[in-house]
Fold these 2 entries.
Entry 1:
Amino acid sequence: MSSNILLGITGSIAAYKSADLVRNLTKQGFTVRVVMTQAATKFITPLTLQTLSNQPVYLDLFETGMEHINLARWADIILIAPITADFITKLTYGNADDLLSTICLATTAPVTIAPAMNQQMWNATITRENCQKLRQRNIKIFGPAIGSQACGEIGAGRMLEPLELVQCLQNLVLKQPLQGKQVLVTAGPTREDIDPVRFISNRSSGRMGYAVANAAAIKGASVILVSGPTALTTELPTISVYSAKDMLETVMANISNTDIFISVAAVADYRPVQQIKQKLKKDSEQLQLVLEPTEDILAKVTNLSKPPFTVGFAAETNDLDNYAHKKLITKKLDMIAANLVGIDDSGFDSINNKLKVFWNDGNIELPHCSKIELADKLLDIIIKRFFVKNL
Ligand code: CTP
């Protein structure tokens, strides 16, 4: 169970509540380390927080050497409470000009925030827009509460009470249903060489697969990502592969301890029979490539004597339900997530997507939204079916 909470405190009068928050978190068994911005130290002293957390308090990016990376790795969850409008903007745009913002950029832990500010600032269009962007990145926003404010106004902008925040974190920890589970995800396209300078591939960007891997990690799983060539980066343990054959070998080498296998990769179905050793010359009117089928990775996995819970993806241009259902049965999948490609702003190479998920006796449509939000929703469905199957 997650227990290392990195508490970020920024410069708001609500920082006085942070002392109580540290006390309540430690009482509930969490280990708390506090990182303060310079502005926060105007409202509450580091000594107070150090005494209550029984841990050093971190203030300065330049005095701490590589501590920002160590803290980023140490944290199971980051909570910034209170977070000011200014720090929300920093977080939105990925600034890294102080210790806390640098840690937020360097961590793979879920980041949560509890805003505290004047109600007008909370309702400002730019704050709303920033919060919307943070939500799309799966950053959880706790509160703010409505009530009387330190500035004398009444409205939304009060930081949640320390006990409420403890509850929020406990819910989050308990919502890590994949703790102790191993999840293997494939992502991106594969490349099948024609000659030393040319290959056959497809439009997959890898975004959906990376989002799925990330969502599984946020839900507590140990994740291995097997990725074809993409322009994406991730902090998750990743094995880069090139061709369908490489991907197959890597998946099979890592499948034995896998509880859930999610095959998001757009694996090439065919490869050139011959990979020509020297660059092909333009010396004929027509050129015919002879292709042979690649091995189906999913089918290979589901035919193991003890296959993991297996989820496939299907990208179709037409007849979605029919094809998806057929793949569910023929590949012996527990679940398949299907999407129509080549229409509007969905599918290959786009930020957004929508999915229809099928399993043996049901299906559900997940509406058009960012691939990050979609991955979170998809994981919730996978978890439900996985636990039903393993009851
Ligand atoms: N897949 C795989 N190995 C392959 C081809 C596909 O594991 N050699 C997986 C994909 O990762 C995906 C699912 O199978 O999860 C469906 O892939 P898709 O390309 O939609 O279907 P195909 O089985 O290749 O059928 P078709 O191309 O005819 O639609």
Entry 2:
Amino acid sequence: MRRAGLVALVACSLAVTAGCGDKAEEKTDTGGQGGGTEQVSLGFSQVGSESSWRVANTKSVQDSAVSAGIALDFQDGKQQQENQITAIRGFVQKKVDVIAFSPIVESGWDAVLQEAKDAKIPVILTDRAIDTTDTSLYRTLLGSDFVAEGRKAGQWLVDRYRGRQDDIKIVQIEGTTGSAPANHRRVGFTEAIESYPHLKVIDSKDGEFTREGGERVMKTFLAKHKDIDVVYAHNDEEGLGAIDALEAAGKKPGEDVLIITVDASRGGLEALAAGKLNFVVECNPLLGPQLMDLVKKAAAGETLPTRVVTDETVFDQAKAKEVLPTRQY
Ligand code: GZL
Ligand code: ZN
């Protein structure tokens, strides 16, 4: 592994307990292109449209840009890193005031972010973190603490099986390989259950954060393992896919096999309310208002906090039933 890559990996694994890019010290801005009275321009590169979480996140960014009077150039990465790199290059050429993006995976961003830095365009990481040894390449990371989300999922399982000594067999449907949410949700969950040897993760595979991916992976698990007690899926879509696979195999999801997911989208909370999921950790996609506030500050050359963590909670069946009528996404 190239030395730089090794250093980055070590940096990430050292930082990963707090989540990459989660350092809290203040950082001074050298100023953006904008500020003053003219309209601030923002280039935003999105991961894709793989999940209802992502669709809600896109809507929040687009609606908030309109209400903030910010000129938004929105580019859909269609789940490919090279599309996002091309989009960021385009923003530099267009000389936007600020660049924001949700990096589909953690690595491989230093070169293009150096180009933005050389052009003196501030960069705001939104939703997902990157792995870099040069944290001057971005001004702040706005988004959830995925390690904390994984810990919440694991802690629910520890509490649920307190006192049990027999082995509990867990399968994990991971998010996109190399993405911050997949890496950090796995770390947080592992940390939470590691001192309970009877809670055993017997298999783990990438379900790409989609319902089809969740169903495909769950079918593989069911073919490979005689008995499975728990599914830990890194997002609701994968959990809904696991429900599809379990029902096709004549099993009762939420009863024969417990399912924990992350996001708390409408689909996830409806399945939880129906008893087909058992516990859902929220990951809030409505980052638009906070992002636009940070964009204006960056454009005006103001200092930004290096980390803005989103507020979010957890849901059991009763709470899901309560919030569904007024849920925004
Ligand atoms: C998490 C976000 C993840 C969601 C998935 O902040 O990056 O990507 O959990 C989405 O639903 O696909
Ligand atoms: Zn990381």
